[in-house]
Amino acid sequence: MEEEALLGIGAFARRARLSQKALRLYDRHGLLPPDHVDPGTGYRYYRESRLGAARLIVRLRGLDMPLAEVGAVLAAPGPEAARLVAAYWDGVERRVAAQRELAAHLRIHLLGDEGSLDMYEIQQREVPEQLVLTEQRHITPEELPDWIPAALGRLAPVAQAHGASSATRSSSTTAR
């Protein structure tokens, strides 16, 4: 069987749609090491069969995927690699959604509309009538560990007197 011909770094880079600098970077990160390095000249050679991996790296980097995550995708079998790409993209979408909200808030703030109702998404929903018990105090954060259990101790008997079930009482008193 005939051995596969090696492509010089320039030819491989052109066919992979990568720069030679990018190939050297991917070698340093262990993503796409050359198949042969000439010991005298240091010239790098790649097998043509590696073009698929190189092009996959190009596409993953097109998603702005960090090199460490690109390496994980390359090392994983097909279904796991697909799961890694999906997980990465879910993270990107969550980050973009958070950035979109921040940009909207900053726009409102910079326009001087802070405090206007446009700053918040307001939704209405129907809930059954219910008794709500509250206790207000002006305390410092350091006082909270003592105040919360004491307040629950005062509110729980009032809630029970107004028909709160023991399940409600026990869940509220254990949320310390």
Relevant terms:
176 residues; mainly alpha; Multidrug-efflux Transporter Regulator, Chain: A, Domain 2; 3 strands; elongated
In short:
By secondary structure, the protein is mainly alpha-helical. The chain is built from 7 helices and 3 strands.
Explain the overall architecture.
The chain is mainly α. Among the domains are: 6-53, Multidrug-efflux Transporter Regulator, Chain: A, Domain 2 (Orthogonal Bundle); 141-174. The protein contains 7 helices and 3 strands, in the order βααββααααα. The protein has a 3-stranded antiparallel β-sheet with strand order 1-3-2. Helix 4 runs antiparallel to helix 5. The longest helix is centred in the middle third of the chain and has 33 residues, at 78-110. It is elongated and about 90 Å long. The protein starts with 5 loop residues before the first strand and ends with a helix. InterPro entries: DNA-bd_dom_put_sf, MerR-type_HTH_dom, MerR_fam. It comes from Streptomyces caledonius. Keywords: DNA-binding. This is MerR family transcriptional regulator. Residues 6-76 form the HTH merR-type domain.
